[in-house]
Amino acid sequence: MSLTEKKKIEKNDIYEIVIEDMTEAGEGLGKIDGYPLFVKDAIVGDTIVAKVIKAKKNYGYGRLEKVLISSEYRVAPPCPVARQCGGCTIQALSYEKQLDLKYKKVKNCLERIGGFSREEIEQKMEGIYGMDVPYHYRNKAQFPVGTDREGKLIAGFYAGRTHNIIENTDCLIQNVKNNEILDIVLSYMKKNHIKAYDEKQHKGCIRHILTRVGYVTGEIMVCLIINGSAKQLKKKEELIEALKKIEGMTSIVLNYNSEKTNRILGDECETIWGRDYIVDYIGEVEYQIGPLSFYQVNPQQTKRLYDKVMEYADLKGEEIVWDLYCGIGTISLFLAQKAKKVYGVEIVEGAIDDARKNAKRNGMNHTEFFVGKAEEIFPIQYEKNHERADVVVVDPPRKGCDAMLLDTIMAMAPERVVYVSCDPGTLARDLRILCEDAYEIERVAVYDQFCHSMHVETVVGLQRKDT
Ligand code: SAH
């Protein structure tokens, strides 16, 4: 081996490294002579001793053995099981630093992948909108139920990348009412000898407890996901009696899932008490939310984000709007408050059923929804039916917009495009295409919807260039 040749990095090697960044999964990222090592529980700014636990050709994973110099951004996580639980991956990072990292991530992607100049980006980015109190913000929880080594019934969350349940009925990012709900369900199970589902044996009854709480209305839904039939729920009236005493209880539902699968919910639901759904509001718009509905999980930040979409859409009341990748039509209906007509397109049929129901509920007859691929429906409506738009909103999944869809936007040439994104990388890639000739970025706003995880949401307002 020549002197300049680098030593091969191998499993069980020990290194001292400085953590320079955080990954999407919340791991610290440091380098050994340029070789990236991902270390869970390490925080940007830490100097640590890491043991290599997996060495691939171009990168590896390490275990945090010791923090030599603690990062100035390191805080004591307020949740006692933060390190084991797979939910909050970056609770040990101060909230200010979490926001700073997320903002920079978007900025870097726009520069590096989007090809926009630093000056332009700095001038156009509004900053990041975080939460004043980044706890107890979620309106939906799914607790797996199981038994611990001693056979005791437990509910909690999965540890990162496993299906081991970390007992925790008092999750800091969930609604405080969950504690009471879980207590009641677990006590009922113990008293009546109802077994938790065991996924290895594919036996037992209760798999998950799903809860939803309306942020504005306070309405609560409890949904028990069960393997097998409802007959196993002996004396379920006792459970119903206890649950309905909780203030706000509106809906108690069973969901049947007898498959050997990682999917939490099955397709069939049965309401055993109260309504089939809860109701909540985003601003003035009312939404009914069933056990299977996709609904944004951080209602406070969602309202702020949608207000920003409305601001960037700059509606005067006469506009035709297309909301592509519309989910249950939450953005469509929010914008319908100020638009002449709103069309929504979404691939999941059940979501469109919800969108139509909610449009009716709000008396919004000037909305229309399509089930199908946005990249197919939108071009067909444009080419065959000569539909057009003044404003197009896109809110695609992580993989971003399909090229065909971007082409149609540029051909249709709406005045404004509002791009809502959960992945700054694909956002930047798509903006590069849209801004090559046709559009110009007006403003960019970043939102923290998932505090204590590395996920970040971005809203970009684009204006058609004058031709
Ligand atoms: N705008 C919604 C949800 C956006 S999430 C809200 O604010 O709540 C992205 C949505 O895109 C999901 O509902 C997903 O089902 C849908 N989707 C994924 N691929 C799609 C495609 N090719 N065409 C249309 N919708 C798609």
Quick structural overview:
Helix content is 25%, strand content 31%.
| Percentage beta strand | 25-35%
* Total count of domains: 3
Number of helices: 10
Spatial strand order of the main sheet: 6-21-22-20-19-16-17-18
Classified in CATH, the superfamily of the largest domain is Vaccinia Virus protein VP39
Q: Low-confidence parts lasting 5 or more residues at pLDDT below 50? A: none
Structural class: alpha/beta
Overall pLDDT level: 95
What integer value in Å does the Rg equal? 24 Å
The dominant shape is: globular
Written account of the structure:
This protein is an alpha/beta fold. It has 3 domains: 14-69, OB fold (Dihydrolipoamide Acetyltransferase, E2P); 118-130 and 298-464, Vaccinia Virus protein VP39 (Rossmann fold), CATH 3.40.50; 140-282, OB fold (Dihydrolipoamide Acetyltransferase, E2P) (Beta Barrel), CATH 2.40.50. The protein has helices at 95-112, 118-124, 177-191, 236-244, 299-313, 330-336, 349-361, 374-383, 403-412, 424-434, and strands at residues 14-22, 28-32, 35-39, 47-55, 60-69, 125-129, 140-147, 153-158, 165-167, 206-213, 220-226, 249-256, 268-274, 278-282, 285-289, 320-324, 341-346, 367-371, 391-394, 416-421, 439-447, 457-464. The chain has an 8-stranded mixed beta sheet, sandwiched between helices. It has a 7-stranded mixed beta sheet with strand order 9-8-7-10-11-12-13. A 5-stranded mixed β-barrel has the order 1-2-3-5-4. The longest helix has 18 residues, at 95-112. The mean pLDDT is 95. S-adenosyl-L-homocysteine (SAH) is lined by residues 294, 296, 325-327, 330-331, 345-348, 351, 373-375, 395-397.
